[in-house]
């Protein structure tokens, strides 16, 4: 079995941008490349947040939140389950994102929403759960000024 060669991919304007970046750094010392312009503190901040969320996942917090939410929804009458699920999701995601950054929290809560949407007994539609998660995380993220992602970058 032989593999066909990969086609050469070209993005219009990319060659010109690379040429301009090289020409802009041509007169500068070798150490002042694009890597020195990257805000490493911001990247490390987000990396640490994602590590924190994955650690909480490995410790079982996400499974606990999902199990607690499923048990609470199962206690309600079947005709009211969607409404209760939406109310729980908007409040849990909103209050939590007021104290934890909303970007990694969303990655954590997507797992909870997925488990709720695929649970055979709950029989909840996925789309309203995703929308309510989006609204809760976005609105809760604006609660405290210190945890707004854009403000972390703007005030640095």
Topology, please?
Elements: H1 14-24, H2 40-58, H3 61-74, H4 81-97, H5 102-118, H6 126-141, H7 149-154
Description:
The protein has one domain. The longest helix is centred in the first third of the chain and has 19 residues, at 40-58. By secondary structure, the chain is mainly alpha-helical. Helix 3 packs across helix 5 (102-118), helix 4 (81-97) runs parallel beside helix 6 (126-141) and helix 5 (102-118) runs antiparallel to helix 6 (126-141). 17% of the residues are buried. It has helices at residues 14-24, 40-58, 61-74, 81-97, 102-118, 126-141, 149-154.
The portion of residues assigned to helices is: 55-70%
- Overall structural class, as computed from helix and strand content, comes to mainly alpha
Say how many strands there are: 0
Order of helices and strands: HHHHHHH
Beta-strand content estimate = under 5%
Let me know the largest β-sheet.
none
Shape: elongated
Write down the overall mean pLDDT. 76
- What is the domain total for the residues? 1
Distance between the termini: 55 Å
Number of helices: 7
Transmembrane segments: 40-61, 82-100, 129-148
Pfam family, one: CitMHS
Keywords: Membrane, Transmembrane, Transmembrane helix, Transport
Subcellular location: Membrane
């Amino acid at each position: 079995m032989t593999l066909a060669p990969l086609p050469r991919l070209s993005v219009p304007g990319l060659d010109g941008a690379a040429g301009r970046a090289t020409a802009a750094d041509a007169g500068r010392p070798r150490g002042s490349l694009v890597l020195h312009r990257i805000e490493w503190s911001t990247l490390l901040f987000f990396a640490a947040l994602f590590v924190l969320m994955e650690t909480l996942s490995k410790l079982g917090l996400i499974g606990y939140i999902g199990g607690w939410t499923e048990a609470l929804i199962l206690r309600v009458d079947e005709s009211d389950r969607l409404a209760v699920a939406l109310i729980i999701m908007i409040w849990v995601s909103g209050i939590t994102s007021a104290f934890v950054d909303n970007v990694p929290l969303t990655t954590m809560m997507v797992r909870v929403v997925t488990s709720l949407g695929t649970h055979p007994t709950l029989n909840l539609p996925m789309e309203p759960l995703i929308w309510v998660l989006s609204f809760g995380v976005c609105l809760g993220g604006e609660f405290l000024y210190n945890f707004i992602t854009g403000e972390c970058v703007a005030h640095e």
